[in-house]
Amino acid sequence: MAERGRKAHTARPRRPHNRAFPSSRTRLPRPSPWPDKIIALLRAGNPAAAIAQVKVAPSVRDLRALQKALAAAQLAGRWKDVDIAIEESIRLLSGSRLHRSP
């Protein structure tokens, strides 16, 4: 019997897990919009701006995604200086760090 002013605890029925929609713990990372922006710069005829963006690339993963996107769009090799900048940035970001910021 419940005390005065309190309701008796009733367990809520558990909802069955819907396998069609994975839980938030199994979410895949979204693809970055960054490679698409760089390709847009190149298509607009601004390889200097694309190179500047490549030099401040967020991660190696984004640079590799840019390489794949360029290959998929059949633009790889069209701008040699861009390809060189991508390779250099991958090499620099992949290398071990001599020191880390605090």
In short:
This protein is mainly α and 102 residues long. The chain has helices at residues 34-43, 47-55, 60-72, 80-94.
The major pleated sheet works out as:
none
Question: Which range does the strand content fall in?
Answer: under 5%
Distance between the termini: 60 Å
Give the overall silhouette. elongated
- Fraction of residues in helices? 40-55%
Q: For the CA atoms, what is the radius of gyration?
A: 25 Å
Structural class: mainly alpha
State the order of secondary-structure elements, H for helix, E for strand: HHHH
Q: Number of DSSP helices?
A: 4
- Report mean pLDDT, rounded to a whole number: 83
Describe the protein.
With about 100 residues, the protein is mostly helical. The chain has a domain at about 30-95. About 45% of the residues lie in helices and about 0% in strands. It is built from 4 helices and no strands. It has helices spanning about 35-45, 45-55, 60-70, 80-95. It is elongated, with a radius of gyration of 25 Å. The N and C termini lie far apart (about 60 Å).
What order do the helices and strands come in, and which of them pair?
Blueprint: H1 34-43, H2 47-55, H3 60-72, H4 80-94
Helix pairs in contact: 1-2, 1-3, 2-4, 3-4
Structure keywords:
single chain, 102 residues, mainly alpha, 46% helix, 0% strand
